[in-house]
Prior knowledge:
The structure is a single chain. By secondary structure, this protein is of the alpha/beta class. The chain has one domain: Rossmann fold, CATH 3.40.50. It contains 8 helices and 7 strands; from the N terminus they run βαβαβαβαβαβαααβ. The protein has a 7-stranded parallel sheet, sandwiched between helices. Helix 4 links the parallel strand 4 and strand 5. Helix 1 crosses helix 8, helix 3 runs parallel beside helix 4 and helix 4 runs parallel beside helix 5.
Amino acid sequence: MRLTDQVAIITGAGVGIGKAVALRYAAEGARVVVAEIDTLTGRATADAIHAAHGEALFVRTDVAEEKDVRAMVEATLGQYGRIDILVNNAAVLMYGRDTRLHEVSSEVWERTLAVNLHGHFLCAKYVLPVMLQQERGCIINLASPTGLRGYENLTAYSSSKGAIAALTRAMAADYSRHNIRVNAIVPGTIDTPMNALELSDEKMRQKLIAMAPSGRLGTADDISRLAVFLASDDAAYCAGGFYPADGGLMAV
């Protein structure tokens, strides 16, 4: 097992990519903190880990709220005494409401940036002092092709993910010398609950499938496998990198 006894915080771990990463990390021997705003799904992920004889702690967390993030980190330290891995996964995509800039409401803009960008900032802000004291750590941010290329009708989401790309580079530059590795995963279109509304339109679904040379949508497990590699010692010299799992989407 590649993550034996590592303590890993995964945000948004109740569903989709976050849940898949949490389950796979636990299977690889990690002690997993399920940081999730939805109590029902968060507890379900922790229960699934326990049922598979893994170790998990659920902490209800709104990553956009500083007091929640602070409490989540304190709970992690109280339970496990250390933090080895942070997976900044929690995000929102307000499909249908996130559109061209002049049509985006302030509510959509502010909530999207609060969760997708400020949430990454807050979680890293409170985890990094622990990792600095330990003189080791790994942070994985979830980026997106929408933050690296132009996509129509996704102004707030694209802006938040573009900022994650810049944040990842800045963090890698500042913390690599402290043996803290910061990298980003860049998922393509993944068949998860966050994309359910968009993918429920069969015409749109087929369009998105056709955009990837692989000819299929991604799965949460496609991302979780890459997340294990980046968290493990196999990626010891990987810092400031962007790792696509997109079926070739950005290659064409």
